[in-house]
Amino acid sequence: MKIYILSLVSALFVLLCGYLVPWTITPLIIGLTYAIAALGISVMLRAGQVSFGHAMYASVAAYSIAFISRMRPETDVIVLIVCSVVIATLFSALIGIFVVRYRGIFFGMLNLALSMVLFALTTKFYDITGGTDGIRVSRPTVAGIALERSAFEFTLMCIALAGSLLIAWAVQRYFRSGNGQALAAIKTNETRLEYLGISPRHVLWKGYILSGAVVGFSGAILALVQGLVTPDVGTWLRSAEYVYITILGGAAHVSGAFIGAAIFETVKLISSAYFPGFWQAILGLTLILVIFVVPNGVVARS
């Protein structure tokens, strides 16, 4: 119960911060997209599998929004988000059939390879994707109402906050369900699962689909707040940042993703402001410090 109250208080604080200090809205939304994506990564980490290519699902959702918005400029923001998440989910289900056959470094590198293929396609097919220039996303209507930029960004922040709370609740419920326990068992003793008549590959596939859907939601919000979709959304560096945040916060509880994202954004913002040529090293030192002090992340237990 305490964690739910703390989550609601944190969400209200973010909402109030965005309302009173409007320039913070964009950084807050981008921070939320990192937290949501890290939540998707934590699902895979629950099974002991680290994906270095999950940003491709954010890219799929972002480009889906760009294509739909270009074909149907009148499409409402909620319809755009739902359609893009469905497409990212279906894409993850298709990719998952192949990658869940592998474990450990092979699982991580295979995801990385597939994300690099998608990155190359979005870069090379200029006539379709706009290449490195990307595709501009026009500001969609909200419930049929065309809003000014400031009102739209505040509404988008409310949608991102509500979505993140709902996803965090659903993922935590999943962790405590039979499927979630079976997913955790893949990390500890996969052979025992098979003795119980449970297919580890099927369990991991379902977890992979959930993970892809969650990361897809983060990509949809990112596309809408930026108003531009470029191949950088799905680059390996962004996948690495998602993994960084997940390790920093810990995968034992969903709150770890949000705490990890808050630490990541704070360290990044302060170090890039005061040490502009040294901020990557400070981020690395922060992770090393966390690994030594709290090896399982800031939130080590559920």
From TrEMBL:
<dbReference type="InterPro" id="IPR001851">
    <property type="entry name" value="ABC_transp_permease"/>
</dbReference>
<feature type="transmembrane region" description="Helical">
    <location>
        <begin position="77"/>
        <end position="99"/>
    </location>
</feature>
<keyword id="KW-1003">Cell membrane</keyword>
<dbReference type="GO" id="GO:0015658">
    <property type="term" value="F:branched-chain amino acid transmembrane transporter activity"/>
</dbReference>
<feature type="transmembrane region" description="Helical">
    <location>
        <begin position="52"/>
        <end position="71"/>
    </location>
</feature>
<feature type="transmembrane region" description="Helical">
    <location>
        <begin position="208"/>
        <end position="230"/>
    </location>
</feature>
<feature type="transmembrane region" description="Helical">
    <location>
        <begin position="106"/>
        <end position="126"/>
    </location>
</feature>
<feature type="transmembrane region" description="Helical">
    <location>
        <begin position="242"/>
        <end position="264"/>
    </location>
</feature>
<protein>
    <submittedName>
        <fullName>ABC transporter permease</fullName>
    </submittedName>
</protein>
<dbReference type="Pfam" id="PF02653">
    <property type="entry name" value="BPD_transp_2"/>
</dbReference>
<keyword id="KW-0472">Membrane</keyword>
<dbReference type="GO" id="GO:0005886">
    <property type="term" value="C:plasma membrane"/>
</dbReference>
<feature type="transmembrane region" description="Helical">
    <location>
        <begin position="28"/>
        <end position="45"/>
    </location>
</feature>
<feature type="transmembrane region" description="Helical">
    <location>
        <begin position="151"/>
        <end position="171"/>
    </location>
</feature>
<keyword id="KW-1133">Transmembrane helix</keyword>
<keyword id="KW-0812">Transmembrane</keyword>
<dbReference type="InterPro" id="IPR043428">
    <property type="entry name" value="LivM-like"/>
</dbReference>
<feature type="transmembrane region" description="Helical">
    <location>
        <begin position="273"/>
        <end position="294"/>
    </location>
</feature>
